Amino acid sequence: MNHRRRKTAQTRLRLLTAAVVILTLALLALLFIFLIKTGSLQTKWNHSAGKNSALEEVVRDLKAELEIYEADNKELLEKSSLLTDENRKLKEQNTELTYENLALKQRGQEKEAAYRAEVINGLADVQALDSDIIIDLRYADEDNFMNRQVYPDNSKAFLRRETAVKLIRANEIFKEDGYTIKIWDAYRPLSVQRIMWEHSPLPGYVAHPDTGSKHNRGAAVDITLVDKEGNELEMPTGFDDFTEKAARDYPNHSPEAKKNMDYMTRVMVSCGFKGIRTEWWHFDDVDANSYPLLDVGLEWR
After folding, report:
1. What is the pLDDT of residues 240-256, one digit of tens each?
2. Judgement on whether residues 110 and 129 belong to the same structural domain of the protein
3. Enclosing domain of residue 160
4. Confidence tier at 301 by pLDDT (50, 70, 90)
């Protein structure tokens, strides 16, 4: 009985020992596998960390390049702005040069026209000789007895140079008294005289074109006076009033109108002009008949 028990105990011991050995080997195997996996994970981790570090370095490089590009872009924008300003200035200068060129061309045309008018036809531009004289040519618009424009828009007030000199002398006297001449009509082409006669054949007011007017000789002028503020002085009537009220000897002029008319007449007569009875505004050069009738245009070209 004891022998059997001993033998059973020995068998259990051997089984337990074998179990312990197997368990130990299993644990060692698991440990080995764990160590292998741990090493692999570490390697992967290290590899991943290396890749992450490389990516971070790439990102840093890209950021640095971006900063360079942004700086370059800012510099290019500044240069573009400068170029835009320069281009605008050049355009402005070009516009100014264009206007200056046009002005020079116009002055050249004016000089050429002045030469033709004075040298060829004996006429002078009144305002070119005295810029203080005001020009308001009534036949260059519709504000006249015909209600029709018969002078070009760019018309100038021309007179025989000799007549113009007398008018400028009169204007100097008027200016000393605080007044200035305003011209309503000066030289008038003979072709325009025909138009006027066809519209209103009124002897004493409109000259017959066959004999012509002193205006057609560049030796007559229709004027009034303005004060320092540019206001016209009171006169007997308005311009081209073909009634008895426009006559110098009309008995019912207002005292102020008669005073101004007489004053203007005295100065004009003292400078070599004479008036006519029917029109207070009209003055002939006393030498008008020594000049020829003309039919040249008034265009300032």
Report:
1. 999 999 999 999 999 99
2. no
3. 123-290
4. very low
The pTM of the full predicted model, rounded to 2 decimals, is 0.63
In this predicted structure, what is the pLDDT of residue 300? 47
Q: How many domains does the chain divide into?
A: 2
- The closest alpha carbon to 184, from 107, 56, 294, 279, belongs to 279
Residue where the block lists tokens 């308001």: 136
Catalytic residues: 279
How many whole angstroms separate alpha carbon 267 and alpha carbon 178?
Answer: 14
How far is 291 from 189, CA to CA, in rounded Å?
Answer: 14
pLDDT digits (tens, 9 = 90+) for 82-120: 888 888 888 888 888 887 787 777 666 666 665 565 656
Same domain assignment for residues 252 and 174 = yes
Q: Identify any residues that bridge with 221 across adjacent strands, giving them in sequence order.
A: 283
**Nearest alpha-carbon partner for 279 in 227, 201, 224, 219:** 224
User: Residues 222, 228, 234, 235: what is their CA dihedral angle, to the nearest 10 degrees?
Assistant: -20
Contact 59, 66 (CB under 8 A): no
Number of residues that this document lists for the chain: 301
Structural domain ending residue among the three candidates 84, 101, 120 = 120
Residue 101 lies in a domain: yes
Which token pair is 257? 């109108």
CA–CA dist 203, 206 (Å, integer) = 6
Query: Rounded to the nearest 10 degrees, what angle do helices 255-270 and 161-176 cross at?
Result: 130
The count of C-alpha atoms lying within 13 angstroms of the C-alpha of 99, restricted to the half-sphere facing its C-beta, is: 5
Phi and psi, residue 159, nearest 5°: -145, 160
Q: Final residue of a domain: which of 94, 120, 146?
A: 120
| CA atoms of 291 and 159, how far apart (whole Å) | 11
Q: Evaluate whether residue 300 is within a structural domain.
A: no
Read off the amino acid at residue 80.
S
